[in-house]
Each structure stands twice: as C-alpha cells, then as structure tokens.
UniProtKB/TrEMBL annotation:
Highest taxon above the source species: Eukaryota
Name the record gives this protein: PMF1 factor
Organism: Uria aalge
Signal peptide (UniProt feature, chain positions): none
Biological process according to GO: cell division; chromosome segregation
Length: 169
C-alpha cells in the first residue's frame, strides 16, 4: 500500500458498487441498442409527418424505461437485502485474505472427502463428550463421598441414641 513510498493502492470496489456499475452499463447498452435512429425507422411514416413529436415520444419512452428498470432493480435489491449481503460477502472475502492455508477442495473420492470433513468434527465431539464424562464422574464421586459421610453420621447418631437409651434405663 502507501507505506513503501509509492502511491496508495485504491481499494477494490465492493460488490454493491460492481453491481451498480453493471446495471448502469446494461442501461447504457439498452439505450444504445434502442437508438433514436432505430426508433424512427420503426415508425418511419409518423417520423416523416411529425419528426419533433417522434423525438419527444422517444425521449419520454427511454426516460420512462430507464426509470422503471431502475425501480425494478431497486425493489429486487430491497427485497433480497442485496446491499447487506454484498457487504457481508466483501467482509468475508477480506477476512479470508488473512488465512494462510489453502481452502478445502474436494479430492474427487467421496469417502475421503466425507472422512476429511467428518473426522475433525467427530474428534472434537469426542473430546467434548470425554470432558462431560470427566465432569460427571467427578460429580458422582463427590455425591458418593457425601452419601458415605451421611451414613457415617447416621451410624454415629444411632450409637449415641443407643448409649443414651441404655443410660436412661
């Protein structure tokens, strides 16, 4: 970028900007394809009688066509939440640049692909289950100690009751 003394590299345009540029180019090409000359040729008789009116009708037609296409595209962008999706896609691409390891690609052998995708997940799940098992075993050990301590206390109380009963008699 600009830290090495050279001119700063401009940021690549976002997907929303690219989409807008594509739409504008499409509209330009549409207007070019439907030029006034072609329009006048289609309505030659009318053009010969009323050239100014023909030009006015053409200008209104093209203007209305562009406006309605832009509105339709804006509706599609709004309904599909395209601005947000484009921005989040740009963000994902930007974040992915930091990853050094190559992205996963299928090998063409389904068994290996499934194994390569599933084994890390299953190993992670196994380690999670082992952790939960250790926690439960520790909890059970504490409960067992508590139960044994309770039994010892009951035995002590029974002996105490027996001793007092004998002393009372």
């Amino acid at each position: 970028s600009g830290s090495d003394g050279g001119p700063p590299v401009p940021a690549a345009p976002g997907r929303a900007q690219v989409f807008a540029a594509v739409v504008d180019t499409f509209l330009e090409k549409l207007v070019t394809a439907g030029s006034y000359q072609r329009f006048a040729n289609c309505y030659r008789c009318f053009y010969r009688l009323q050239p100014e009116m023909t030009r006015s009708i053409y200008d209104q037609f093209v203007s209305q066509l562009q406006t309605s296409i832009k509105e339709e595209i804006q509706d599609v962008k709004d309904e599909g939440n395209l601005e947000v999706l484009f921005n989040s896609l740009d963000k994902m691409v930007e974040e992915a640049k930091d990853h050094k390891e190559p992205a996963w690609r299928p090998s063409g052998i389904p068994e290996e692909d499934v194994r390569s995708a599933m084994v890390p997940y299953l190993l992670k799940h196994r380690s999670y289950l082992q952790k939960v098992l250790k926690e439960k075993e520790e909890e059970n050990r504490r409960v067992a100690e508590s139960v044994l301590a309770g039994r010892d206390r009951i035995a002590e109380l029974q002996q105490l009751i027996q001793a007092r009963k004998l002393a009372w008699q």
